[in-house]
Design goal:
By secondary structure, the protein is an alpha/beta fold. Helices cover about 50% and strands about 20% of the residues. The protein has 10 helices and 12 strands. The protein has a 5-stranded parallel β-sheet with strand order 2-1-3-4-5, with helices on both faces. A 5-stranded mixed β-sheet has the order 7-9-10-12-11, with helices on one face. A hairpin with a 5-residue loop joins strand 11 and strand 12. Helix 6 packs across helix 10 and helix 7 packs parallel to helix 8. The longest helix has about 55 residues. The radius of gyration is 27 Å and the shape is elongated.
C-alpha cells in the first residue's frame, strides 16, 4: 500500500484547520497543522509535506512572506502551495502568485473545490517525484560510467610514458606530450564530475588540512606562467601580509583556483592582464574572519542573465570561438566552496571583463 499523501495546513485559526480536516477526512490524507509561519518553516524537515495549504492573513509573518521563504529554499521550492484567502482583489491574488504560490482557493471554502485542487496539486507533486527518481537513476548511472573511464585513461597515460622512453623524432615526442596533456585534462574533468556527484549526494568527505591560501595561490600561478607567457597575458598578483590560513581539502581548493585562473587566461585577449588578489576582510563581530580571493580578467565579460545561471551545471556563458567549454568548472567551484562553508560570486570588471570573488573562513 502506498504512502499517504502528507498535507501541511498553515493557519493561525485552529477552527479553520478543523474545517479542512473534516472536508478532507474521507480522502485518507495525513494532515498536519502549524499556526504560524516560522514554526511551519521549521517543521518542514520533520513533516516533509507533499502539498501546503497556506492562509494569507496571519500575524507576524503573513502567508505571502511564508510562501516566498519556502519557494526561495531549493530543498522545498518544489512543494505545491495552495493559498487559502478571503482576498478577492485581483492585485492581491497576483501578489500571491508572484510570491510563488501554485494555486489559490477562496474563503469560504467549498468542499468540492478544495478536494479538486488538492488532487490536482498532488498529481503535480507525484509527477515531480517520479521525475526526480528518474534523474537520480540517470545521475547514478552517469557516475558509474564516469568512474569506469578512469582505468582506460590510466592505461593510455602509461602507454604515453612507455613511448617517451623510445628514441622517436621530435615531432612524435611533441604529439605524445600533447596526448598526455589532453588525457590529464580528461582525468581532472572526471574528478570534477565525481566530486560534484558526491556533493549532490551528500557523500563528500573533506580531507581537511591547514592551508596557507597565499602560498597555494602562488604555487598555482607558477604553474600557469608558461601559458600566460605564450598568450602574452600579464599575471598581476596582490597578496596581503596577514596570515591567510584556512581549514580545507587541499586538492579541492587547488582545483577551484586552477579552474578560475584557467578560465581567466582562456577568455582573456592577448596583451591584457589577469589579476589575482588574496586578502583578509577587516574583523567584524557580526561574522567570522574571512579571506577574500579575487580573480580579475579583461575578457569578454558575463551578461546579467548569465550571472544568474553561470554556476549551474552545463552553463557555459558566452560562446567564444576556439575556446573549449563544458560547463562544469564553475559549478564544481561553487559546490566545493559551499562544502567548505565558503562562497563565490561574479561581478563586472571595468571597462570590460569579470571579477570572480571567493570568501573562505579564516582559521
Amino acid at each position: 500500500m502506498g504512502k499517504k499523501p502528507v498535507i501541511l495546513v498553515i493557519d493561525d485559526e485552529p477552527a479553520n484547520f478543523d474545517v479542512m480536516e473534516i472536508l478532507l477526512f474521507k480522502e485518507g490524507y495525513e494532515l498536519h497543522h502549524q499556526d504560524n509561519g516560522a514554526d511551519a518553516i521549521a517543521s518542514l524537515d520533520r513533516i516533509n509535506p507533499d502539498i501546503i495549504l497556506l492562509d494569507v492573513m496571519m500575524p507576524d509573518m503573513d502567508g505571502i512572506e511564508v510562501c516566498q521563504q519556502i519557494k526561495s529554499d531549493r530543498q522545498w521550492q518544489h512543494i505545491p502551495i495552495i493559498i487559502v484567502t478571503a482576498l478577492a482583489d485581483k492585485e492581491d491574488l497576483a501578489r500571491c502568485l508572484d510570491a510563488g504560490a501554485d494555486d489559490f482557493i477562496s474563503k469560504p471554502i467549498n468542499s468540492t473545490e478544495l478536494r479538486a485542487r488538492v488532487i490536482s496539486m498532488l498529481r503535480i507533486k507525484s509527477q515531480y517525484d517520479r521525475l526526480q527518481e528518474t534523474m537520480l537513476l540517470r545521475e547514478e548511472m552517469m557516475q558509474t560510467i564516469v568512474h569506469d573511464l578512469r582505468n582506460p585513461l590510466i592505461g593510455i597515460l602509461l602507454g604515453c610514458d612507455s613511448l617517451r622512453s623510445l628514441e622517436l623524432p621530435d615531432r612524435a615526442t611533441r604529439r605524445i606530450d600533447q596526448m598526455s596533456k589532453a588525457i590529464e585534462q580528461m582525468r581532472l574533468l572526471i574528478d570534477d564530475i565525481l566530486t560534484i556527484g558526491r556533493i549532490e549526494a551528500n557523500k563528500l568527505i573533506l580531507n581537511r588540512t591547514k592551508i596557507d591560501m597565499t602560498d597555494l595561490t602562488k604555487t598555482v600561478l607558477a604553474g600557469f606562467a608558461p601559458i600566460a607567457q605564450r598568450k602574452q597575458i600579464a599575471i598581476v598578483s596582490e597578496f596581503t601580509d596577514e596570515p591567510t590560513y584556512i581549514s580545507g581539502d587541499l586538492y579541492l581548493i587547488r582545483r577551484v583556483l586552477d579552474n578560475l585562473i584557467d578560465n581567466a587566461l582562456k577568455f582573456s585577449p592577448q596583451q591584457s592582464s589577469v589579476t589575482i588578489k588574496v586578502g583578509c576582510l577587516p574583523k567584524n563581530p557580526d561574522r567570522p574572519d574571512l579571506i577574500k580571493i579575487q580573480v580579475i580578467d579583461e575578457g569578454v565579460g558575463i551578461s546579467s542573465h548569465q550571472k544568474q545561471v553561470i554556476f549551474e551545471k552545463y552553463e557555459v556563458g558566452n560562446i567564444v570561438l576556439g575556446v573549449s567549454q563544458i560547463g562544469l568548472g564553475l559549478s564544481f567551484c561553487k559546490m566545493t566552496l559551499e562544502a567548505h562553508q565558503g562562497s563565490i560570486s561574479v561581478t563586472n570588471n571595468q571597462p570590460q571583463g569579470s571579477i570572480f570573488t571567493i570568501f573562505l573562513n579564516r582559521q
